[in-house]
Amino acid sequence: MTDFSKLSEQELSVLIADASKALEAKRQQARRDVLAQIKSLASTIGVDVQITEQAPEANTRKGSKVAIKYRDPGNPNNAWSGRGVKPRWLQEYVDQGRSVDEFRV
Q1: Could you tell me if residue 80 is inside a domain?
Q2: Whole-angstrom Cα distance, residue 5 to residue 2?
Q3: Is the pTM for the entire model greater than 0.85?
Q4: Is residue 23 included in any domain, yes or no?
Q5: What are residue 80's DSSP bridge partners?
Q6: 41, 33 in Cβ contact below 8 A?
Q7: Per-residue pLDDT of the chain (105 residues; tens, 9 = 90+)
């Protein structure tokens, strides 16, 4: 077994890349073997099997646009929808004692 602690970062990166390629090649070979076995078994009972490849479905979940709820009067490019972490520009105004509601659109 290899002592990974003695390898440099670059050597580890190369090793990981090579291992990933080898793993993918083994998976592809196993897939081809299973498909060949399926076709062989089907032919023994007189059935012709057609296997079609289907690409994996793309993630169809799209984030929806959210209306801007807050805008910086000093810089209109600074805007916030009210979701997520409060932006730095707005937090600076709040730290100065101003209310978040002052910046509501």
Answers
A1: yes
A2: 9
A3: no
A4: yes
A5: 70
A6: no
A7: 778 888 889 999 999 999 999 999 999 999 999 999 999 999 999 998 888 888 777 777 777 788 999 999 889 899 999 999 999 999 999 999 999 999 998
Does residue 42 sit in helix, strand or coil?
helix
pLDDT for 59 equals 73
The residue range of the domain holding 27 is 8-44
Give the angle subtended at the CA of 103 by the CAs of 99 and 105, to the nearest 5°. Answer: 140
Neighbours of 85 (CB within 10 A): 7
Residue 65 placed within a domain? no
24 occurs within a structural domain: yes
What integer pLDDT is reported at residue 20 of this predicted model? 96
Beta bridge partners of 79: 71
Query: Amino acid identity, residue 74?
Result: G
Distance of CA 86 to the CA centre of its chain: 25
Helix (H) or strand (E) holding 71: strand 70-71
